[in-house]
Structures are given as structure tokens and as C-alpha cells.
Amino acid sequence: MKVLVNGEIINRSEAKVDIEDRGYQFGDGVYEVVNIYEGIPFTLKEHIARLYRSANEIGIQLSEQPEQLCNRLMELIEANNMTNGGLYLQISRGVSNRSHHYDQTLTPQLVAYPLPFKNVSDAQAKGVEAITAEDLRWLRCDIKSLNLLYNIMVKQKASEAGAFESILIRDGIVTEGSSSNIFIIKDGILLTHPANNLILNGITRTKLLEIMDANGWDYKIQPFQKEDLMKADEVFLTSTTSEVMPIIKVDGVTFSQAKPGPFTRKFQTAFREVVKAETKTTTEKA
Ligand code: PDD
Questions:
Q1: Which residue in 16, 118, 126, 144 is the catalytic one?
Q2: Can you provide one Gene Ontology molecular function annotated for this UniProt record (predicted)?
């Protein structure tokens, strides 16, 4: 496997991380996951824009322009002969003697490499189960930070319960999943949490809302309660790796006869079509 380390594409076995890297010691950095379809990264520009935003929010300045980084990532995809899978990218603040405060002159460390293809088509067809958990994270969930400790804890809880995702509840309100955004449908209207400091503004979420706009489908961006979730007609999540994923059971309660509901299906199909169209258009342009 070839990996990108600070602008250079090298073999995985040659890639080294310093033990005093602040990403390693403090989780002091940001990351992204991009999906690759037939060698084409989907919504790459949007992911890179969010990466720069996250970096900026924690005071990491990158010397490379977003376009340059996109070009390097395209080279990385080519160097690995990637067809389907993902790209993982992370930026840490840099390497220094361990102290909480940092020197503004540190050189950010950027690492990117391929992630194996995850087949979610069966889960997408049948739907998945979720559990709920209290949202005990910090109040800057809009930053895609390397600090994922609580997300990991609740994902593990879901996994041990035989579920796919933990849906997080803060003060009675459904915020998002441990690694996804959450949507409910009630009486034909889609609801999802506003993109504020309490959630990560998912690229998949944004794309789906654009698709809703383009089709003139109604939705409301507004917080909803756990009891609205439990009384919803349909529930689904979105994320880069899951796309539109139906949720058919939450805490043992089933939705739409334990099958993906008609609205979820419609959105799932519309999303797939956009993925196909956008990855195809880019191929033709290239
Ligand atoms: N997770 N919310 C959280 C907390 C996430 O970690 C993610 C993505 C999302 C969905 O964002 P997007 O649609 O841009 O993937 C929402 C990634 C995939 C991960 O950590 O692996």
C-alpha cells in the first residue's frame, strides 16, 4: 500500500509517526473519510473544505492549498490502483516536547491512505438496528476532531448489543449517531438536527438535503425529542461509508414493520443516482 505523508507518496512500511506527534499524544488534530467509487472520490472538494474548516477552528494553518491537496490525493488513489474503498486523511498539529500548550510554529503532519471497501449493500437493503445513548461529548461536535473517545465508547456499546449504531441524546434531544447523522420521517416530513455545534455537519447529510431541494421534497431542519424518534414512521442515518442507511429498530422498538420504509427507500435511491451521476461525470471529464 502507498501512503501520503507530508506531501510524499511512500510505501506503508516506510511511513513513520513520531512518538511526540501531538495527534498521537493528545488527539490534537482533525480528520476526514472520503468514499471512492470506481476510482473517483465522491464529494472530495466538500470533504477537503470541511477538513480545512476543522483545522482552522483549532488553529492549525496548512501551507498547502486545498486544490494542491486534492491533486495529491488523486495521485494517491492512482498509485494504489484504487477502485472502491475509502481514503482516510488526518492532520495533526505537529511534533513537539509534550506540553498542553503549543508553539504556533509547529509543522502540521498530514497522513492519508486507502481504506478497504466496506460492503454495506446488504445492510442498506435490510436496514440496521440502533440503540440510544446519552450524548456526553464536548460542545464542539462540528469539528471533525481526532478525539473520538466517547464516539468509540458508544459505538462499542452498540456493537456489543448487536446493533449498528448508537443514537445520541442530549437533554432529551436527538443530536446524531456516534459516526453518522440521524433523520426521522413523521407524516411524510423529514426531520433532522440543525448543523450547529452539537453535530458534525455531514457531507452525506448536506448532499441529501440538496437532493431534497432539487426534488421539491419537504423537510424540516429542527431538533426533535427522543420520544419523536421512538414514534417516528421511519428512521435512517447517513454517513460517507453508509450513505442512506435505514434503521428498522431502536432500543428493541421496530419501525415500518421492521423493513426500510418507502420514504427512506426513495431517498436512498435518489442518493445512489447522484453518486452514480457525479462519479461518472468526473470520469468523463478526466
Ligand atoms: N464519520 N457525525 C459524526 C460524529 C461522524 O463521525 C460522521 C462521519 C458523520 C457523517 O458525516 P459524513 O456524511 O460527512 O461522513 C456524522 C466518519 C465516516 C468516520 O468517522 O468514519
A1: 144
A2: pyridoxal phosphate binding
> Is a pLDDT exceeding 80 seen at residue 106?
yes
Query: What is the tens place of the pLDDT at every residue in 19-72?
Result: 999 999 999 999 999 999 999 999 999 999 999 999 999 999 999 999 999 999
Looking at the CA of residue 240, tell me the nearest atom of ligand 1.
15
* Spacing, Cα 147 to ligand 1 middle (Å): 13
Distance from residue 238's CA to the centre of ligand 1 (Å): 8
Question: Domain boundaries in the chain?
Answer: 2-115, 121-276
| pLDDT above 90 (res 99) | yes
State whether the beta carbon of 180 lies less than 6 angstroms from ligand 1: yes
Distance CA 112, CA 140 (A): 24
**For ligand 1, what atom is nearest to the CA of residue 31?**
20
Return the ∠ at Cα 157 (arms to 34 and 90), rounded to 5°.
Answer: 25
Q: What's the CATH architecture for 2-115?
A: 2-Layer Sandwich (3.30)
C-alpha cell at 184: 426521522
Grid coordinates belonging to 109: 503532519
Q: Is 144 one of the annotated active-site residues of the chain?
A: yes
Ligand 1 in reach of 200 Cβ (< 6 A)? yes
| Domains 2-115 and 121-276 in one fold | no
Say how many Å lie between the CA of residue 165 and the centre of ligand 1. Answer: 12
| DSSP code per residue over 51-102 | HHHHHHHTTPPPSS-HHHHHHHHHHHHHHTT--SEEEEEEEE--B-SS-SS-
- For domain 121-276, give the CATH superfamily: D-amino Acid Aminotransferase, subunit A, domain 2 (3.20.10.10)
What pLDDT sits at residue 280? 86
User: Is the distance from the beta carbon of residue 235 to the nearest atom of ligand 1 less than 6 Å?
Assistant: no
pLDDT score at 148: 98
